[in-house]
Design goal:
heterodimer, A: about 120 residues, mainly beta, about 0% helix, about 50% strand, globular, B: about 110 residues, 7-stranded mixed sheet, 4-stranded antiparallel sheet
Chain lengths: ~120, ~110
């Protein structure tokens, strides 16, 4: 079966422009996560979706960042008025379910490498 | 709240053993371990829950000391394929927000 897919794989943009990053989770996975990984750094949690709702948005670094998920499947992470410090690899992951006692492994996509000039 | 991983990096020869540690300042519900090879996505290795339940790949060994809020990943008889960066992710509430450590870089040489 197909894994988590993300598009685009690479995105170069100019400072101040908006970008949209897309994540297609594994079919049937109700939980979806966005992380950011700066060069040589660990994984920084951004947001978590259970179905279409986002019970935890605590990791979004500023109000320039937003995310939505439609139909309990595809998710889009939008960064408005991009800044150079937004440059990073944005990783999406999905798992079978969320909620308390979440013991399900997360399957990661290949990531989108965002470069803001 | 980021867990602290140690060591930051380790170099092994094939066949040698290594231990990677993950420490938290807060009580943990579970610890998750992932490995990431250069330029690739992180791959699941193991979940350890309070109470002793574990879920993961058979060839991976790990421990979770709830009292000390620590977990250790044991890599025995290392192979070249073990090379990569190992991340622990900690879950405080049994929910779904994992806070990952900075990673431990493991390099296995022939």
């Amino acid at each position: 079966g197909a894994g988590v897919s993300q598009s685009p794989s690479n995105k170069v943009t100019e400072k101040g422009k908006d970008v949209e990053l897309r994540c297609d989770p594994i079919s049937g996975h109700t939980a979806l996560y966005w992380y950011r990984q700066s060069l040589g750094q660990g994984l920084e949690f951004l947001i978590y979706f259970q179905g279409n709702s986002a019970p935890d948005k605590s990791g979004l670094p500023s109000d320039r960042f937003s995310a939505e998920r439609t139909g309990g499947s595809v998710s889009t992470l939008t960064i408005q008025r991009t800044q150079q410090e937004d440059s990073a690899v944005y990783l999406c992951a999905s798992s079978l379910r969320g909620g308390r006692q979440g013991t399900n492994e997360q399957f990661f996509g290949p990531g989108t490498r965002l470069t803001v000039l | 709240q980021q867990p602290v991983q140690s060591p930051q990096a380790v170099i092994l020869r094939e066949g040698e053993d290594a231990v990677i540690n993950c420490s938290s300042s807060k009580a943990l519900y579970s610890v998750h371990w992932y490995r990431q090879k250069h330029g690739e996505a992180p791959v699941f290795l193991m979940i350890l829950l309070k109470g002793g339940e574990q879920k993961g790949h058979e060839k991976i060994s790990a421990s979770f000391n709830e009292k000390k809020q620590q977990s250790s990943l044991y890599l025995t008889a290392s192979q070249l394929s073990y090379s990569g960066t190992y991340f622990c992710g900690t879950d405080l509430l049994g929910g779904n927000k994992l806070v990952f450590g900075a990673g431990t870089i493991l390099r296995v040489k022939s």
